[in-house]
């Protein structure tokens, strides 16, 4: 699935966004820049949480600028993971599937496949608050991938982790992205991270 932002503009009292870019099918495109420059806002515009003042968003040349989030088939991993602390790993990953009306059998198969993909196969009954930061980040990634999104959006997913774990998770994200061949927009302020992960940097 290709993604194109064409003249997207959003104005706020303290900053404004003016961005155009293309992410080809299966690419990792990184938005690199300092905090407060509008990277997260751009992700939220792509996801449909924020409406742009001007411009158009295209998925495979289909204009989705004013489509609501649930009709865009986009997966988003938040900076703070946003996992449900009262739920176990299985329920966190399966949350979106339940909302989409998946059967119990299909949910179990999908969650098991994702746990295998993120290499946490025997963790389905663990409570997420008992997991390390790196494990929680993998669960957040699996949850975003569960409904088979066309586009994956990652908002500073490694910023809360220490340097060694960041490097390890960076490799994991790239492996998973390459395996699934999913078009990905990755946000970071870390130049080394951007260079290690990206096919394209904006």
From TrEMBL:
Residues of the ABC transporter domain: 3-202
Name of this protein: ABC transporter domain-containing protein
GO molecular function annotations of the record: ABC-type ferric iron transporter activity; ATP binding; ATP hydrolysis activity
SUPFAM superfamilies according to UniProt: P-loop containing nucleoside triphosphate hydrolases (SSF52540)
InterPro entries in the cross-refs: AAA+_ATPase, ABC_SmlMolc_Importer, ABC_transporter-like_ATP-bd, ABC_transporter-like_CS, ABC_transpr_FbpC, P-loop_NTPase
Classification of source organism: unclassified sequences, metagenomes, ecological metagenomes
GO cellular component term, pick one: membrane
CDD domains noted in UniProt: ABC_Carb_Solutes_like (cd03259)
Pfam families registered for this protein in UniProt: ABC_tran
Gene3D superfamilies hit by this protein: P-loop containing nucleotide triphosphate hydrolases
PANTHER family per UniProt: SPERMIDINE/PUTRESCINE IMPORT ATP-BINDING PROTEIN POTA, SPERMIDINE_PUTRESCINE IMPORT ATP-BINDING PROTEIN POTA
